[in-house]
């Protein structure tokens, strides 16, 4: 690279940042060694170290002396720390919810009474109002109540106990996507899709809508995780076709 030192560093920052945002280097992953990266980008180790320091200042990576450079969760890149990192990762939290709540929604669709549908409808509209007002805490509480109500309708006490026992963790995972201000009403629209499937007593559609919601909420928080082909895709499409349409990766197990 025959440019000024700053231009070389800026170019390296842009390349590494793009790879992080495209999940070439996913959240939690360790970047290649500095020697490998420097050779790949055809820059000096000194310029690479400067680029990595810039990325650390941006919250994109964490430099751990003697251990390597690791990609931060997007919650950190948004300036919002994941408070429960010492208990469970944010990615694991969303994957747990994907597994439990999609199943619960399928069962709930066959158990929801008209009164329960009315309650869920009121909850969804109240959450919309809180989001419009910028009241993230109230929106997160209503979000949690919506999901817990559906789990309750499913009638699986073990799943309900897991979620109730992790109330603060689950609520925090629901709050983080709201910090993407331009997408703040996405949760509302996704809840409407779940509610519509419940109203139609369509278990397959309810489960798929719930799984799609959790995958997209995770992505708004910067977490991308593969959907095993053994599970229905959030869109209801075959896994590989779903990956092409939605960009949600799929892995063959």
From TrEMBL:
* Alphabetic keyword roster: DNA-binding, Transcription, Transcription regulation
Q: Gene3D superfamilies annotated for this entry?
A: GntR ligand-binding domain-like (1.20.120.530), Winged helix-like DNA-binding domain superfamily/Winged helix DNA-binding domain (1.10.10.10)
GO molecular-function terms, A-Z: DNA binding; DNA-binding transcription factor activity
Source organism, top-level taxon: Bacteria
Record-linked CDD domains: WHTH_GntR
Pfam families tied to this protein? FCD, GntR
Q: Which PROSITE patterns match?
A: HTH_GNTR (PS50949)
Enumerate the residue ranges of region (Disordered).
232-253
Q: What is this protein called?
A: GntR family transcriptional regulator
Please name the source species: Pandoraea terrigena
Give the taxonomic lineage as stored in the record.
Bacteria, Pseudomonadati, Pseudomonadota, Betaproteobacteria, Burkholderiales
């Amino acid at each position: 690279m025959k440019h000024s030192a700053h231009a070389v560093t800026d170019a390296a920052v842009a390349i590494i940042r793009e790879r992080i945002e495209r999940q070439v280097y996913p959240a939690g992953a360790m970047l290649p060694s500095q020697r490998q990266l420097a050779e790949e980008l055809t820059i000096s180790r000194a310029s690479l170290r400067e680029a990595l320091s810039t990325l650390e200042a941006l919250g994109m990576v964490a430099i751990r002396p003697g251990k390597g450079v690791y990609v931060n969760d997007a919650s950190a890149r948004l300036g919002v720390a994941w408070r429960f990192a010492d208990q469970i990762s944010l990615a694991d939290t969303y994957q747990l919810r994907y597994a439990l709540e999609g199943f619960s929604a399928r069962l709930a669709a066959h158990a929801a009474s008209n009164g329960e549908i009315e309650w869920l409808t009121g909850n969804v509209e109240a959450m919309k109002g809180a989001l419009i007002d910028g009241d993230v805490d109230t929106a997160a509480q209503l979000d949690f109540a919506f999901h817990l109500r559906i789990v309750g309708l499913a009638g699986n006490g073990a799943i309900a106990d897991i979620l109730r026992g992790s109330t603060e963790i689950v609520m925090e995972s629901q709050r983080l996507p709201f910090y993407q201000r331009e997408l703040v009403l996405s949760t509302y629209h996704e809840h409407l899709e779940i509610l519509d499937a419940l109203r139609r007593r369509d278990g397959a559609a309810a489960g798929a809508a719930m799984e799609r919601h959790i995958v997209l909420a995770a992505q708004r928080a910067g977490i991308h995780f593969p959907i095993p082909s053994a599970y229905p895709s959030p869109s209801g499409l075959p896994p590989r076709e779903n990956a092409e349409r939605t960009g949600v990766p799929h892995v063959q197990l």
